[in-house]
Amino acid sequence: MNVLEIEPRLLEAPPRPGPALSGEGVVIARTHHVTLRTLARDDLGHLSTWADDPFLEQMVGSELLHSYRHVYRKDPSFYEACLYDPTQMVLIIMANRGWTNPVGLVRLFNIHLLEGYAFLETMVTERRALRKGFGVQAGKLISAYGMDVLGLRRIEAKVYEYNLLSQNALKRHGFRQEGVLRKAGFQAGHYWDVIVFGLLKEELEAQRQKERFTYATGDAELGDESA
Amino acid sequence: MIEPQVRGAAVQPEISEGRSVQPDRGWTSLRINGPLTASTAAELRETLRRHAQAGGARLLLDLRCVSAIDLYGVAALVFGLRTIEAQRGGMRLVMNDLVARALKKSETLCAFSTCRDQ
Question: A–B: how many Cβ contacts below 8 A?
């Protein structure tokens, strides 16, 4: 039997310099506008703030933030639970120009690698960053990464009927409305419809070609600026 | 980082997960030490791609010394399996409990032929 040995770099070697590492987080993918990196320990402070934000609760109703607040009771073990969960990728959205703090969070969850589908959740948490396209960019980027690297062929997203901002963002991103879950959401004492959106790999490919959307993974070079 | 190195028979494959595995001549073993995570999975992915390109590769991945694994690591293993099988090759795993738990949780364990650690 032939025998080879691989030792992943971070076992013995110091962290690589450059854009691959950002604080504790690892840069997963980036465009000229946004960078997506893994959760860092320092982000727990941000998560804590976001989990208490009634506006985010109303607009997104994130199960991730709900879990951090109510299941983990803001315990730091949440950090590793997210990091090593093989069914989800939780990424912090960093805006590249003129922003120092994270502007939001995007994640693929319930990832089924063999069947090739997952669910998308995007939150722009910084109010000043709303309506600047960061959410759309982050959604496009994580979707492209999910399809290119993870081998996904379908991504699904759900939005409350009153969250028109997110619905429009998903449509700009190439998602199509696939159905309505009638009175499936509960917010502020009322039941609300939940709109289901879906994106297939070929639809994202068409969108990427149309917009000349490019991105880089890790510390790879980015091409010329486009979408 | 990837050092070709002849080693003793560190892996003793056994029957596991319902499929009999008997790696012998013609099988190449890749031993992976340390974390298989967002920081390191790309390296494994590239290595598996290179092996697959040769066509008909038969790989035994020794994951017993993996110290951490996340979605990116699991995805690299699935990618390797698909790529190698598409080139008429085969890939089998020998793993520790940490890796087994991650593959079970991600519902990907059923896709792999596995060998029991001895």
Answer: 131
